[in-house]
Structure formats: structure tokens, C-alpha cells
Design brief:
Helices cover 37% and strands 3% of the residues. It is mostly helical. The chain has a domain of 65 residues. Strand 1 and strand 2 form a beta hairpin. Keywords: Plasmid.
């Protein structure tokens, strides 16, 4: 990412609340995406929250992308949008069983014969 004018963050960016084992180990980000987030995440978060002002056209475009995600063109912008969606969006939950309870309940007596209820 040396071809970008985007500033490196003043510190490495981590999200120990949503990704306690790191971005790449979460299974949601590649190693390259993890590197982008750790190097530039502090700056991107500062621009998003308004703590820092954009220095160049690339950073100004990043702020426009936050308002309209379809305008994302750089890898850096797409990675931040992915981070926002995963960190702040709803987490998908997949169950192993499609139904919550069995449809029929059969009651067996202690000797193994089926007991019918009236």
C-alpha cells in the first residue's frame, strides 16, 4: 500500500472487543486486509468520527465513501466498509437444526411399550 497518500495511523489499530484474536484470525479478513486495518485503521477511524481532518484528496474521498459506500474505489476504502459491516452490523447466526422442537412426542413406559394418551 505504498502507492497511497493516506496517512498511517499514529498507533496500530485493533478492535479487541469484536475481534479479540485479531482481524485475520477471525476468519473474516485476509492477511493483506489485516495489514491495511492495523496500519491505516487509526486514521480511518479518526476521519470517520471527525477527530482528524482530511489532508489530501484521497482522505476527502474516503469521507464521501462513508456517506455513500457505492463510491468506494480503493482497497483501503473497501476494507474499512467491510470492517464497519462486520464490527457494527448484525452477526449472522447459523443453527445446526432447522426446527426448534420435535413435531411429535412419543412417550414410552419403563418396559419399552408405547403409551398412548387420550
Amino acid at each position: 500500500m505504498s502507492d497511497t497518500l493516506f496517512r498511517h495511523g499514529k498507533k496500530r489499530f485493533f478492535d479487541n472487543e469484536k475481534f479479540p484474536r485479531g482481524f485475520a484470525k477471525s476468519g473474516d479478513f485476509t492477511l493483506a486486509e489485516e495489514e491495511i486495518l492495523t496500519l491505516y485503521g487509526d486514521t480511518m477511524q479518526g476521519l470517520e468520527t471527525g477527530l482528524i481532518e482530511p489532508d489530501n484528496a484521497e482522505e476527502k474521498h474516503f469521507i464521501k465513501v462513508l456517506e455513500n459506500p457505492s463510491k468506494a474505489k480503493s482497497k483501503l476504502e473497501r476494507v474499512w466498509l467491510k470492517y464497519i459491516q462486520l464490527a457494527r452490523g448484525r452477526k449472522r447466526f447459523h443453527t445446526l437444526n432447522g426446527r426448534s422442537k420435535p413435531e411429535t412426542v412419543e412417550d414410552y413406559s419403563n418396559d419399552g411399550t408405547l403409551v398412548e394418551e387420550d
